[in-house]
């Protein structure tokens, strides 16, 4: 909880005055699909902390809209990283993940960072003030 939720809360509180002074700002939290879909039972606190982060995203989006600060979260499925490698080395887990993935492949870090970059551009202003998951 401290790493996933409390750090996001405290850092956003510290950033708020700076973002407000800039006249427009963006916060994009990294959530997880496990916050809305049960993937397995190995990491219940991780899933719960990401679900709480989703609610924090919605609350801050509403609260800080008046300050022209957009708050969103990206909730990716399994992304090929060193952190996911140990789980995905298990053939049964990899098979389950791929079977539950419409494209039948793992995501790549660049695909997630592209979504984050898009959300920080001026163009998707309509996506602000909603606290949506992307």
TrEMBL record:
Belongs to the short-chain dehydrogenases/reductases (SDR) family. SDR65C subfamily. PROSITE patterns: ADH_SHORT. Pfam families: adh_short_C2 (PF13561). Keywords: NADP, Oxidoreductase. This is Uncharacterized protein. GO terms for molecular function: oxidoreductase activity. It comes from Salix purpurea.
């Amino acid at each position: 909880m401290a790493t996933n939720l409390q750090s996001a809360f405290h850092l956003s509180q510290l950033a708020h005055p700076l973002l407000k002074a800039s006249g427009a700002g963006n916060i994009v939290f990294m959530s997880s699909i496990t916050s809305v879909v049960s993937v397995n039972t190995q990491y219940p606190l991780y899933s719960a902390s990401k679900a709480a982060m989703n609610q924090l995203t919605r609350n801050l989006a509403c609260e800080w809209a008046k300050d022209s600060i957009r708050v969103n979260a990206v909730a990716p499925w399994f992304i090929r990283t060193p952190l996911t490698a140990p789980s995905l080395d298990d053939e049964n887990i990899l098979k389950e993940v791929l079977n539950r993935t419409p494209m039948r492949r793992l995501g790549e870090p660049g695909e997630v960072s592209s979504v984050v970059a898009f959300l920080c551009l001026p163009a998707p202003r309509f996506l602000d003030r909603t606290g949506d998951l992307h």
